[in-house]
Design brief:
It is a single chain. The protein has 262 residues and is an alpha+beta fold. It has six helices and twelve strands. The protein is 25% helix and 26% strand. The protein is globular. The protein folds into two domains: 113 residues, Nuclear Transport Factor 2, Chain: A, CATH 3.10.450; 133 residues, 2-Layer Sandwich (Muramoyl-pentapeptide Carboxypeptidase, domain 2), CATH 3.30.1380.
């Protein structure tokens, strides 16, 4: 919809979440941000994206709209990160960052960052958590794994994932944390933060945003998500004659949203 929106968000996240040996620290991060022509103070909002490590590398697994309007946007940058530890070992982690942008000339600019914070693992998560984590046909980024382990994701979400995995390989982008608290541009609470929704950016290895992905595959997936109990399925495909259980808009051009009432 607005290619520079995602490009701008990814440039910033990469500048904050990766640095060469000796390039750690907020002052170095501010310099990298300034080199992009963005406000250096954004480095102060990096949170878990900038751990104390002498070296780091970062992969943006997916950049997804959290919302796209005429003059403002949210991009959810789903990241995997590797950090060099003081003893020389490498730790693997990652986070999902809600990057807020506004239209500007010559390019969109970033106004705020909201990194996810899933909290600590639960002492006794739902048995369905282990089933989802063990299912190779459900691909989860680091923040989504942490969401499941925190015990804050409803069983309706977990059971739907498992049911869909019986037919498809699904690549999940966002579950709970890292998503805007409200549906973007509204005051209506999103189903994501309470753990009642998940987004899928790739189905059977085919990106939802890719024009080459068969529309029939996406429509079938959306219908099966509804059959798995979702009351609110959004994606890039308009489902004819399906009532208000399905929706499509610019924000869901690049993923399928699957929400639940409980």
């Amino acid at each position: 919809m607005e290619p520079d929106v995602k490009r701008r968000a990814v440039e910033l996240v990469a500048a904050l979440g990766a640095w060469p040996l000796g390039g750690q620290g907020v002052e170095a991060a501010r310099a990298r941000v300034a080199a992009l022509g963005l406000p250096p103070g954004l480095a102060d909002q990096a949170g878990p994206l900038a751990p104390a490590a002498p070296e780091a590398s970062l992969e943006v697994i997916n950049a997804q709209y959290g919302g796209i309007l005429a003059d403002s946007a949210s991009v959810l940058a789903v990241c995997r990160q590797w950090t060099r530890q003081p003893d020389g070992s490498v730790a693997t982690g990652g986070t999902t960052v809600d990057v807020r942008l506004s239209r500007a000339e010559p390019r969109w600019t970033v106004t705020d960052l909201h990194p996810g914070d899933p909290g600590p693992p639960a002492a006794a998560p739902s048995p369905a958590v282990a089933q989802v984590l063990a299912q190779p046909r459900i691909e989860l980024p680091p923040e989504a794994v942490a969401d499941l382990r925190s015990g804050t994701v409803h069983d309706s979400v977990l059971h739907a994932m498992l049911r869909l995995a019986g037919t498809y390989t699904l690549s999940v982008s966002v579950v709970r944390t890292g998503h805007p608290l409200n549906v973007f541009g509204t005051t209506r609470p999103s189903d994501h933060p309470p753990g009642r929704a998940f987004d899928v950016w790739r189905i059977d290895g085919r990106a939802v945003v890719d024009p080459g992905t068969p529309r029939q595959l996406i429509e079938s997936f959306m219908r099966d998500a509804a059959a798995a109990g979702s009351y609110n399925v959004g994606g890039p495909v308009a489902i004819p004659g399906a009532g208000n259980q399905f929706f499509t808009d610019d924000t869901h051009h690049d993923h399928v949203h699957i929400g639940f009432t409980e």
